[in-house]
């Protein structure tokens, strides 16, 4: 009897020890899981990436905290799909729904960059990745990640802007001008190229400093944007030189009138920081007439040289081949 009880005790103790060891393993795994969850949450927050899931049967949603933050909704609140969709811009909502429906039909996935206006009225951009999950071949849920890419989108847009626009004046830069000149000329969609050079700019820039010179350039750009509002493109192509592309359909009289308007506008005093600066503009015009882009630029530049040589504050239209020594037949 004593031996029997002793055996039972030993077996129970061994079982208790095994259970304690198992409990220790489970506790260790729970701590490790909690640690990894904390790491994931921190990484998710730092990367602005949240996880989401949608049950297709009833469109119920489950979000991690970052998704709430992206939409500027209270963490832990019950997300409603219809209310969430209302935060997408109309174009993004339509495209996202189109891709979602297709992914469900094809049991596939998609990635999409959407624009939203959050519950607090903030414009944001969000990258959505989605994967359809099936059970026995039937789609039951869709899940994935949402990432706030607003800063990335604005940085890319800024780089694109800098690549195409002059930072000082906001006009198109030389690269965009060259691209548009080639594109429009080759398509036969160009009537004329006007090159504009500021008269008296060097005196202002040298005599009053670069800040005054920069202010004059910005003012000149603003005047050109108003005067040439109907033109295809207004660009600053370097220093105090600007260019205007006039679209097909404009006749010689219209082009000449535009040049007169430019010289008249630039002849008005530049009043900056309490000082009045007298500038002006000379304009050289090349009529497209099927000419190659490079030839157009040379012709307009030749006409500009003739305008400056003719007393400045005026314009010339290139009418033929330039003779040696840059003497032109501009009128």
- Cα(first) to Cα(last) distance is 131 Å
Low-confidence stretches: 322-331
Mean pLDDT: 85
Biggest sheet overview: 5 strands, antiparallel
Number of helices: 10
Describe what is shown at a glance:
The protein has ten helices and twelve strands. It is an alpha+beta fold and 331 residues long.
Which terms summarize this structure?
331 residues, alpha+beta, 25% strand
Please tell me about this protein's structure.
The chain is of the alpha+beta class and 331 residues long. Helix content is 49%, strand content 25%. The protein has helices at 2-47, 65-71, 81-85, 90-106, 150-164, 174-186, 201-208, 210-227, 252-267, 293-309; strands at residues 49-55, 61-63, 109-117, 123-135, 138-148, 190-199, 233-238, 241-247, 270-272, 275-277, 280-287, 315-317. It has a five-stranded antiparallel β-sheet with strand order 2-1-5-4-3, sandwiched between helices. The protein has a five-stranded mixed β-sheet with strand order 7-8-6-11-12, with helices on both faces. A hairpin with a 2-residue loop joins strand 9 (270-272) and strand 10 (275-277). The termini are far apart.
List the SSEs and their pairings:
Layout lengths: L1 H46 L1 E7 L5 E3 L1 H7 L9 H5 L4 H17 L2 E9 L5 E13 L2 E11 L1 H15 L9 H13 L3 E10 L1 H8 L1 H18 L5 E6 L2 E7 L4 H16 L2 E3 L2 E3 L2 E8 L5 H17 L5 E3 L14
Parallel strand pairs: 11-12
Antiparallel strand pairs: 1-2, 1-5, 3-4, 4-5, 6-8, 6-11, 7-8, 9-10
Helix pairs in contact: 7-8, 8-9
């Amino acid at each position: 009897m004593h031996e029997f009880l002793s055996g039972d005790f030993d077996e129970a103790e061994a079982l208790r020890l095994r259970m304690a060891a198992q409990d220790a393993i489970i506790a260790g795994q729970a701590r490790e899981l909690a640690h990894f969850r904390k790491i994931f949450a921190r990484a998710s927050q730092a990367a602005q990436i949240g996880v989401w899931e949608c049950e297709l049967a009833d469109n119920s949603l489950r979000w991690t905290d970052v998704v709430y933050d992206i939409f500027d909704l209270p963490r832990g609140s019950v997300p409603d799909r219809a209310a969430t969709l209302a935060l997408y811009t109309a174009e993004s909502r339509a495209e996202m729904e189109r891709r979602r429906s297709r992914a469900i039909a094809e049991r596939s996935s998609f990635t999409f960059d959407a624009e939203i206006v959050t519950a607090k009225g903030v414009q944001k951009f969000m990258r959505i990745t989605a994967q359809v999950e099936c059970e026995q071949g039937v789609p039951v849920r869709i899940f994935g990640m949402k990432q706030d890419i607003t800063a990335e989108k604005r940085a890319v847009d800024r780089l694109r802007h800098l690549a195409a626009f002059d930072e000082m004046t906001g006009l198109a830069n030389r690269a965009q001008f060259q691209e548009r000149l080639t594109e429009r000329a080759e398509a036969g969609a160009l009537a004329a190229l006007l090159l504009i050079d500021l008269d008296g700019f060097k005196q202002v820039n040298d005599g009053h400093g670069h800040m005054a010179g920069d202010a004059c350039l910005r003012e000149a750009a603003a005047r050109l944007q108003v005067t040439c509002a109907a033109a295809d493109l207004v660009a600053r192509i370097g220093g105090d030189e600007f260019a205007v592309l006039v679209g097909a359909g404009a006749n010689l009289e219209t082009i000449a009138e535009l040049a007169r308007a430019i010289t008249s506008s630039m002849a008005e005093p530049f009043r900056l920081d309490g000082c009045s600066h007298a500038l002006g503009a000379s304009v050289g015009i090349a009529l497209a007439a099927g000419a190659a882009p490079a030839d157009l630029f040379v012709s307009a530049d030749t006409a500009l040289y003739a305008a400056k040589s003719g007393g400045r504050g005026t314009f010339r239209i290139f009418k033929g081949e330039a003779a040696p020594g840059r003497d032109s037949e501009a009128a």
